[in-house]
Amino acid sequence: MGLGFNFAMTKLPRAVRFAVLAFGCAALCVPAFAAPLKVRIKDIVSFEGVRENQLVGYGLVVGLKGTGDTLKDSPYALETMISMLDRLGVNVRDQSTNMKSKNVAAVMVTATLPAFARHGTPLDVRVSAIGTAKDLLGGTLLVTPLMGADGEVYAVAQGPLVTGGFSAEGQSGTSVTKGVPTSARIANGAIVEKEIAFDMNQLTSMRLSLRNPDMTTAKRIAQAINGHAGSQVASAMDPSTVQLNIPSKGEHGVMAFLTNIEQLTVEPDTIAKVVIDEQNGVIVMGHNVRISTVAVSHGNLTIRVTETPQVSQPNPFSNAGTTAVVPRTAIDVNEGGKKMTVVEEGVTLGELVDHLNALGVAPRDMITILRTIKAAGALQAEIEVI
Q1: What is the model's pLDDT at position 105?
Q2: Which helix or strand (DSSP H or E) is residue 50 part of?
Q3: Residue 354: left if φ>0, alpha if ψ -120 to 50, beta else—which one?
Q4: How far apart are CA 105 and CA 129, in angstroms?
Q5: Helix or strand or coil: residue 229?
Q6: Strands 294-307 and 153-160
Q7: pLDDT digits over 106-128, tens only?
Q8: Coil, strand, or helix at residue 76?
Q9: Residue 290 main-chain phi, psi, to 5 deg
Q10: Stronger pLDDT, 352 or 237, i.e. the higher one
Q11: 321-327: which pairs have CB atoms within 8 A and are 24 or more residues apart?
Q12: What φ, ψ does residue 348 adopt, rounded to 5°?
């Protein structure tokens, strides 16, 4: 095989032979490195103006099986029902004090209006009781306008409710509840009636907001966009904002340009941080966490107290003495698990975990150790307790 290869090489021109040998050397000399984690720009930024809007409304649910509001304790539910009947041509104001229905409930209705939602687009809505209602199972929401923060009506909701829980109660007072029966959902229960004006094709500039602000990541995003566009169209303004100047639309348009931008990949950078959930004993450490040289010891002091009482009785056929219980106490002190390990400077996250596991450290003890290492100035990371 080697002779055949050499013979074939001699038949090639001299320049080609040098190119083949150089390529072979490069292939053998390139070291193998783990590829850095890269993510799409669309997964770590938000485009200015492209966002959802929150909608809210107040409505009435009917058709409940005696689990609705007590009208005397919920005046807003009573007034809402009277106003609704008035609009339908039924006048019950003179008899309002005698109304005792428990089949209606006053509710708040919420929904999220997606970006670029058009007329007739269906929306999912969430219905929540605000009065004394116990269960919304089987109820139907009547026509409810949903308003935005500006007070304008953007959608109208109506339909049968679907609850994720139930409640049952017996005559003796025993009850059982699963989930939250006073909260329900209506799939496609609202219809968009008004659009939010936003013409993307007329944009000449846009800002990208990083979901996790970081100066290095913002700079890398700007560099990736400029490399794709072939000109300086993006610049990092601060750790959370990248300014993007959209070039002339030409034959592709703004939509096509932004689509290509969001598919670019960058390597996000993060600060060294240790997040501790002290209540549940959960510790999350980033891969940039480093430890300076430090010695760590971990020991447990166990004191075991054992009570073994004994019975003392008089001799057989004795006229003196009584039966008595004599206490016997045994105390055992054991200082087990007393170990010390040295954590070398610059260790990685995996090596730190290995050292702590070698000590037999439980998660809650590890929280104390990490705090102590931080207090000693050896933990080169930020600690955040949630």
Answers
A1: 92
A2: none
A3: alpha
A4: 7
A5: helix
A6: unpaired
A7: 999 999 999 889 999 999 999 99
A8: helix
A9: -130, 150
A10: 237
A11: none
A12: -85, 180
pLDDT of residue 16: 39
Q: Which residues pair with 39 in a beta bridge?
A: 266
Cβ-in-10-Å burial (0-12, 13-18, 19+) of 172 comes to exposed
The DSSP H or E segment spanning 7 is: helix 2-10
- Per-residue confidence at 97, pLDDT binned at 50, 70, 90? low
Dig out the tokens for 339 from the structure.
């170990």
Q: How far is CA 16 from CA 25, 28, 355, 362, in A?
A: 14, 19, 55, 64
Q: What is the DSSP letter of 164?
A: S
Distance CA 218, CA 242 (A): 6
- Other CB atoms within 10 A of residue 111 CB: 22
Q: 378 with 291: CB under 8 angstroms?
A: yes
pLDDT at 317: 67
Return the structure tokens found at 42: 């669309």
Which of 204, 206, 235 is CA-nearest to residue 219? 235
Q: What is the DSSP letter of 93?
A: G
